[in-house]
Amino acid sequence: MKKIITILIATVAVCWGAAAQQSIAIANRLNIAVVNSQKIYEAMDDYAAAIAELDSLATSYQNNVDEAYKKLEEMYNNYMVAKEGLSVADQQSREQAIIDNEAKITKYQQSVFGADGIIAKKQDELITPFQEKVAKAMNDYAVANGLDLLIDLATTSVPFYSEKIDVTDAIIKTIKK
User: Alpha helix locations (H) across 34-87?
Assistant: First the structure.
């Protein structure tokens, strides 16, 4: 029985070693490079302008929301001061007005900042063309240089890589042509 277990363990170890060697051989044949898409975007002058426009628009809408909440808070504070002197019907009326106003602000906020809101649509309009251009440039570079794998450092955690496989600057040059 001991002999069978020993033979079995030895067989598994040999197979494991062979599989590891095969994986190393495959890895040695792969042509891999890394790129930093964020650095590419930053090298594109128009991209910075698009981001600035988007930020300005978002700030403007956020100021509108902040102002609306400020008015709502004022409305609530005025109600709390006058509450004791109001009839039950007037209290309910004002409470309902406050609730309705808050719902209106929330709806407006969602229409601006929500997934299908004004800011998301403007972001698609302004940023998507840059994303498509960078993705195409990275794909074209990978194909032209026979890469098996291109890793984007901006979107993937890579604990280590050699600078010699970083092709970011080469892709920036192709985009700026």
Answer: 37-42, 45-82
pLDDT at 122: 96
- In order, the DSSP letters of 87-140 are -HHHHHHHHHHHHHHHHHHHHHHHHHHSTTSHHHHHHHHHHHHHHHHHHHHHHH
Model pTM above 0.90: no
Work out the number of other CB atoms within 10 angstroms of the CB of residue 49: 11
pLDDT at 55: 96
- In whole angstroms, what is the distance from residue 38 CA to residue 66 CA? 31
**DSSP bridge partners of 151:** 34
The pLDDT value recorded for residue 77 is 96
At 12 the pLDDT is 57
Using one digit for the tens of pLDDT, what is the confidence trace for 35-57? 999 999 999 989 999 999 999 99
Q: Which two tokens stand for residue 128?
A: 């998507």
Is residue 32 within a helix (H) or strand (E), and if so which, with residue range?
strand 32-35
Non-local CB neighbours of 101 within 8 Å, separated by 6+ positions: 71, 72, 75
